[in-house]
Amino acid sequence: MRILIAAAGSRGDVAPYTGLGVELKQAGHDVAVATTDAFAPLVRNAGLEFRNLPAHPRAHGDTTDRRDLMRTAAAFVTELGQGFADAVAEGTDLLLLSTTTAPLGWHVSEATGIPGIGAYLQPAAPTGDFPPVVMGTRSLGRLGNRTAGRFALRMADRVYERAVADLRRRLDLPALTAPAMRRRQERAGWPVLHGFSTALVPRPSDWRSGLDVVGTWWPSLDPAARLPVELEDFLRAGPRPVLIGFGSMAGGEGERLSGIAVRALRRAGLRGILQSGSAGLAADGDDVLTIGDVPHELLFPRLAAVVHHAGAGTTAAALRAGVPAVAVPVTADQPFWATRLAALGAAPAPIPFTSLTAERLADALGHVTRQQTYARAAATVAQRMATEDGAGQALKVVQLLTG
Questions:
Q1: Is 96 helix (H, G, I), strand (E, B) or coil?
Q2: How many CB atoms lie within 10 A of CB 304?
Q3: Cross-strand pairs, 31
Q4: Residue 332, by phi and psi: left (phi above 0), alpha (psi -120 to 50) or beta?
Q5: Taking the model in full, what pTM does it have?
Q6: Cβ pair 377, 345 in contact under 8 A
Q7: 115 lies in which domain range?
Q8: Handedness of CA 389, 391, 392, 397 (dihedral sign)
Q9: Number of C-alpha atoms within 13 angstroms, CB side, residue 127?
Q10: Among its keywords, does the record have Transferase (predicted)?
């Protein structure tokens, strides 16, 4: 079977699909990943075919302004939609669609007859069990949570409105609004696989059939991969350090964040590793090392703690390693995952990005590195996650659904 995985966004929105793609390929399927140019090396290094989605993720403006975030997202998906149909080459037998690409992929499926399956990294369907992942973390009660979940979907449909209209014209399809297509898919029981651990988020009790939580999809890792020599030397030179990084977040704030990080580490009496990321974190010293991208799987088990933005992938990777965290969520679904970490006991209460100071970070680091309850909680979750095979379960469902 020729399978096309379509995903777009930040690195964390794309990397998990390389592991899923490798699992599908090893089962004998031809697998391509359609994403933006920045992640072509990621895809090709996993041994998968790369197809270009001609869009360019934009830096977030004011991450506290929902209207600004929606404008940024709408501009991105409109650009994404302009080239989406071109990525679906003739001969594709199945589309696997991420949360970002599904509202476009549905229309491509209608035009081409190619079936699709959702492959989501976050819970998107409304539920009474918790509020929607992009609308804060305070429960509104079961009815309120479901109502808020439906509202969140309507807001997402507004983001895709122009992109959907343009795409349907290009595909010679009659006009159909994004909400109407969503309702059509829901009535049809469109299947969605969710690539996160039930240890982090149990499957909601009120979800319809066809919405499955299969376990985390881990980024593909080359068996020959090793940590850089300089990093290995630093790890061996003293007590376990703390990693501080914000992934694809906080662009342009590197100087401020680097200063906060170094002051917090020294106040807490800890060695540290700064991961540069989009923010451009950097510092020098015997007790601090700056690094670029390295595989979480190789580094995290050797740390005392991880300070991160609570993206879905980084959150899962720290738990997999049995390492406690300090979550500093910036935007989108990050407060949701940060709150889940705290609820599991693997992290203290999150520090909102806008409230981050050296003093608050030092205090949180002191707690997670000296109170063993956090490490024990993370280790307990790690044991449960080790029993899951997210990519393998996804493969079984794909084969079952496609006969």
A1: strand
A2: 19
A3: 3
A4: left
A5: 0.94
A6: yes
A7: 2-216+388-402
A8: positive
A9: 18
A10: yes
Same domain? 99 vs 157: yes
Residues 43 and 144 in one domain: yes
Q: Are residues 133 and 191 in the same domain?
A: yes
Tokens encoding 210? 């066809």
What's the pLDDT tens digit per position in 279-311?
A: 999 998 899 999 999 999 999 999 999 999 999
Euclidean distance between CA atoms 390 and 45, whole angstroms: 21
Say whether pLDDT at 132 is over 80.
yes
H or E element at residue 33: strand 30-35
Distance of CA 207 to CAs 19, 103, 189, 339, Å? 26, 20, 11, 21
Other beta carbons within 10 angstroms of residue 7's beta carbon come to: 27
Name the domain count of the chain.
2
CATH code: domain of residue 139? 3.40.50.2000
CA-closest candidate to residue 243, choices 217, 215, 281: 281
Q: Which helix (H) or strand (E) holds 40?
A: helix 40-45
Mean pLDDT within 342-349? 97
Give yes or no: residues 84 and 25 share one domain. yes
Taking phi over 0 as left and psi of -120 to 50 as alpha, with beta for the rest, 172 belongs to left
Based on the domain organization, do 159 and 195 belong to the same domain?
A: yes
